[in-house]
Amino acid sequence: MKRGVLVLVLAVCVAGGAFAQVAFSAGGGLLFDGGRLGGFSDSGWDAVDGRWSEEMNVNTFGFGGFVFLDAEFAELSIAFMGGPARLNEEWEDGGDSGSWTEEGSFLALDFTLLGRLPFALGGLTAFPLFGVGYSVVLSASADDYDFDDPGDFSTFRILLGFGGDLDIADNMFLRGSVLGYYRFAPTFFRDWERLGGDAHGGFGVKIRAAIGFRF
């Protein structure tokens, strides 16, 4: 995962060096980030009770702020966010079945590196976005206890979406973007695979609104 991030960073640097005049800008704003953090599933057969299965998923809904720096064809952003998290488990054992839900919360730092392909439409500049991100979970809790190592919920993700800049002054603009992403399974669930079963990631969406300034 870290090797993939490094490759994209180098690619952005090479691409940026190919242009004699690169426009730089920076700014900040607010974001929403919601979707499936990941999960775990397992199933089997018991000679007494018959077929059994279990599935656990964690969904998070983050709100926060971010700052960004871009060089026309690439954007780097850092966000601080937090919000509710919900763990849901469903199980079946022979003729018995049930579900269990636990509420929690999290705080995280989110790093995102995106490639952009801007094109002008009058006072609006639109661009598709694609890239990678890494979310570092700083704290995680569920009901009455905290997790020993919240970093086990940190995730690597790939992102794809679109955005646009609307000029409001010579060197000032409003920026909005919508990104869909896939998060790979965090360590918390991958560790469960040692006992059998399968860990999985999940899909989500990131919505951002910001004000920016050109240099």
Count of domain modules: 1
The largest sheet is: 8 strands, antiparallel, barrel
In percent, how much strand structure appears in the residues?
over 45%
Q: What is the C-alpha radius of gyration, as a whole number of Å? A: 21 Å
SS summary, helix count: 2
Highest-level CATH class: Mainly Beta
Distance N terminus to C terminus? 33 Å
Order of helices and strands: HEEEEEEEEEHEE
Assign an overall shape. elongated
Structure, described:
This protein has 215 residues and is mainly beta. It has one domain (28-65, 74-214): Beta Barrel (Porin), CATH 2.40.160. The protein has helices spanning 2-17, 187-190, and strands at 25-46, 50-70, 74-93, 96-116, 119-121, 124-142, 145-146, 155-169, 172-183, 198-200, 202-214. An eight-stranded antiparallel beta barrel has the order 1-2-3-4-6-8-9-11. Strand 5 (119-121) and strand 6 form a beta hairpin. It is elongated. The two termini are 33 Å apart.
Can you give me a brief rundown of this structure?
The protein is mainly beta.
Q: What labels describe this entry?
A:
9% helix, 215 residues, mainly beta, Porin
How would you summarize the topology of this molecule?
Blueprint: H1 2-17, E1 25-46, E2 50-70, E3 74-93, E4 96-116, E5 119-121, E6 124-142, E7 145-146, E8 155-169, E9 172-183, H2 187-190, E10 198-200, E11 202-214
